[in-house]
Fold this sequence. Notes:
Blueprint (H helix, E strand, L loop, with lengths): L2 E6 L6 H12 L5 E5 L3 H8 L5 H8 L3 E4 L8 H8 L4 E7 L15 E7 L3 E9 L9 E2 L4 E2 L7 E6 L2 H20 L5 E6 L7 H14 L5 E6 H10 L6 E4 L1 H15 L6 E5 L4 E5 L16 H13 L3 H17 L13 H11 L1
Parallel strand pairs: 1-2, 1-3, 3-14, 5-12, 10-11, 10-12
Antiparallel strand pairs: 4-5, 4-13, 6-9, 7-8, 13-14
Helix pairs in contact: 1-9, 1-11, 5-6, 7-8, 9-10, 10-11
Amino acid sequence: xxxxxxxxxxxxxxxxxxxxxxRVLEGMNxxxxxxWTETGDEADAKYGTxxxxxxxxxxxxxxxxxxGSTRDIRGVHGYLRWGKRCFANIRPTKYVPGLRxxxxxxxxxxxxxxxxxxxxxxxxxxxxxxQLAPLKLKNDMLGITLDTTMKGKFAVKVNxxxxxxxxxxxxxxxxxxxxxxxxxxxxxxxxxxxxxxxSDELFRRIAEETVRQYPELTFSQLxxxxxxxxxxxxxxxxxxxxxDNEHGDILGDEAASLIGGLGLxxxxxxxxxxxxxxxxxxxxxxxxxxNIINPTAMLLAGAMLLEHLGYEKEAAQLEAAIYKxxxxxxxxxxxxxxxxxxxxxxQAVKANL
Length: 353
């Protein structure tokens, strides 16, 4: 059965990595149909909105999507993430020879940061502090009541049991899958459970309870600030790390820096009924139109898309073709110390396939 993939090109330099990635996937001659939707500036000029109803319908009629970075969380990005309830943000970090890691000994780095994608501090439930006055909020740890007469802003952090259980289940499933391929079968939860003794402790507790249901796995926990340190000191100790939204966002970027930067790290956002795939970097407006943006992250996202759709062998072939470019050392883009164009890198991947 033909699977339908909706293509969202994204903004600024994003189409420069999305379009060649789709061409590589098309060239693999799989039973996939790629449909191209209009969003962003292109749609705004034509329809007066950056996310027209035609784009929404095309996404709804597709099995999954590949998405370039956008300038705004509203519009297509917000619809895919919150509208489609894609709660699991899977961010793999893997070192292979040739990557421009700042570490002396990066060999063996191969882990996933699994970020809860819908709750926590994002999107911002914010307002003026005085709005909290009717609640008479008391801090049991300090034994004081919140002073709502102060001028300032508040932000609410939300961790629900249901979505926390969902994200921890996905963490265990990922660890089991990786263990079947020779991984250690380890799930690490990290949050600020020592101070946020309700919201972050709930996240930690549910993670521990969920891992207990998988006797083949081992469990560990780290306070988030120690986790940030351990990622630098000994990143090889990790397998699957599960975190809430804002923590996974920050440490996911830290993890990318261990192997050479955001241009190398893909991500998948997965829900119970839909998934979309892309890079974790931004739209790179400063280099838009120059054909120099690193396409590695988007190409690796393409491999994640293939695996999601059941093409595991082909996903492994694509990943190997991408990493062979780094092992050969001829077509590094500028962020990796070379001078190759985006097009040249993608052509090298095609040749390796």
